[in-house]
Amino acid sequence: MMAVALTAVAMTTRSILLRDVDHRISQLLTQETREFANFVDQGVDPDTGARFTEPRRLLEVFLQRQYSDPDEELLGLTGAPGSAPSVLRQPRDTAGAALYRDRDALARILASSASFGTLHRPQGDVRWAKVPIAPARPPAVPSAAPPGAFVVAFHAGHEQAIAAEAFRTQLAISGVALLMTTGIGWAVAGRILAPVRVVRRAAAQLTEQDLTRRIPVRGRDDIALLAETFNAMLDRLERAFAAQRQFVDDAGHELRTPITIVRGHLELMGDDPAEQAETIRLVTDELDRMSRIVEDLLLLAKAERPDFVTPGPVQLGELTADVFVKARALGEREWVLDGVADREAELDPQRITQAMVQLAQNAVQHTVPGQRIRIGSREADGRIELYVADSGPGVRTEDAAVIFERFRRGTPRRGTRTSGGAGLGLSIVKAIAEGHRGRVELRPTEGGGATFVLVLEEDHDR
After folding, report:
1. What CA–CA distance (Å, rounded) separates 59 from 62?
2. What are the structural domains of the chain?
3. What is the C-alpha to C-alpha distance for residues 130 and 153, in angstroms, rounded to an integer?
4. The dihedral of CA 29, 31, 36, 37: what is its sign?
5. pLDDT (tens digit, 9 = 90+) per residue, 197-242?
6. What are the start-end ranges of the E strands in 81-147?
7. pTM higher than 0.90, yes or no?
8. Burial class (CB within 10 angstroms; exposed 0-12, middle 13-18, buried 19+) of 116
9. Where are the alpha helices (DSSP H) in 122-218?
């Protein structure tokens, strides 16, 4: 682009210079012919004091009083058209390309009907202007054309050569400027792009096993901000890969246990029908547990998809009552429909039911028969809350921060029973809440116990 711009500037400058030369030559020719025309109208012969009657005498007197510029010829031509004219010239000579020596060219100029023109010759172009002479009194011999003419000739080659030399000089200067600009641009661009190359090398050296590399940040420009953004992305990737590895390790551990149990019982199974029946029962129970773990893992994987939750208009009262009816079949507890929000909301009824039933199942696992479990829904501060509150031992403070993580279970307390689950239930509840752009909270229950609350914002447009 720099080369194109400099070339365009040089070509434009050359065009301007040539146009200026052409304009100055035209002005000079016009000025000389105007002076001669004035002399024809007003001049008198110094010898007689009267008007000129002969073209030759007129031309001689005028040329004696003129001084031509360099590259300029002032000529007087006399003679009949079509024949070699007689030439009178101003005593200043030009180079070997002088027009007064070229009688054929002068004959063509004298015979031309134009007042201005350009003569193309091997020695160079000549710009000319002509003023035909009409004497004050008619000449003695009749003629169909003027008997003479004043000619101003300008050799444009020298002026054009100066313009061409200026053009070549500017091209040379532009070339040097282009080389200098290219070198400076290369150096500056190298310094500017150096952090980008660092980013590229860091990205190329990243592997799944090593995400600890970071890019040094210097300054506060856009490149530094890019490096900070890249480092933040690496932080997120490192956490994501660490969570993924932990998830795979935990899943492998959880699945390895029932597989080991199944294999051990099958290897030790004897021929006794009763022993075989007990082994089949134990194996079936472990296979069912494995199936639940796999289904929960698939559900959590689906939670990353945008179609995990498909909200629609739902009556909260009906939804809360349906959840209450389904939860009552989970165990012999004192089930209480605590409260109902009588309004419509944009929710996925199947996912919300799944989350609430999971919370109810969790409450059953941490209470004993006869203890109270409350289920309800309400509006609070422009939000929708669906909750399950039990009267069990509650959740330890150190467990509250981890129970919503995958494969993490709280510490069992005396007087409650555990399900032997994989620790995925509350993770599923959390995923469903976040799929509704909400959250799940653990709150203490008045009088003891734990309350799990799905907190959903009122506006759920997706």
Report:
1. 5
2. 2-163 (3.30.450), 222-302 (1.10.287.130), 312-457 (3.30.565.10)
3. 9
4. positive
5. 877 777 777 666 677 777 777 777 777 788 788 888 888 888 777 7
6. 86-89, 116-119, 126-133
7. no
8. middle
9. 157-205
